[in-house]
């Protein structure tokens, strides 16, 4: 275990052409072997944060730096970040016309045996026959979401960024999402998860609350969640919020 965080987002601001700040001097870190949650209301900037960490070209920081294992990756492309072991599971999983589920899963681990692919499917409770189906519109959104979880299971990235991994999956599958977190941690991965769900937030080691592109609170997931539910509307003065935080965390 090292003192250097796996991921460190340092004073990152992302601004649109019209001057709107999508992220405003955001500080966040993900420690090795931890599940870090990002909570916040709709439009708070959570997906923007995920895209910025993944390196999507239109979400490059205007100021601030991003470090991965201590290395400054602010100017790295998505491909370079992927090679370092960062992966993003999109909020709305894509369709890949003409690609079978087996081929899709082998994008995550090209030498995976059929048995390993079946094991990954089994992990997210899908039957082996899905391997020969196509990842097209004939698969439901929830099925594609589950496949995305299976692909992360196979990939075992250093950092898995999961943008609302539960969206579109039924309540029973929520348990599978949390099971995946634990499995990834067993594999040596770390997780940055964006979520609206209590049960997923509760599985985190630490959480951040984003509001209008700013980090309003960092701490124990339960405290952050309670703050979000009880005090977060309307947006309070950040200084006042910090006062609330320090009172709560004592
Ligand atoms: N490319 C863009 N151009 C202009 N505005 C954008 C762009 N991307 C995001 N935004 C705006 O930035 C804000 C944050 O969006 P973001 O998708 O990050 O929120 P979120 O917290 O993920 O919301 P949700 O919970 O609804 O998914 C929103 O007001 C959104 O409209």
From TrEMBL:
One of its GO terms (biological process) is L-amino acid transport. It holds the Pfam family ABC_tran. Residues 7-237 form the ABC transporter domain. Keywords: Amino-acid transport, ATP-binding, Nucleotide-binding, Transport. PROSITE patterns: ABC_TRANSPORTER_1, ABC_TRANSPORTER_2. Belongs to the ABC transporter superfamily. This is Iron-regulated ABC transporter ATPase subunit SufC.
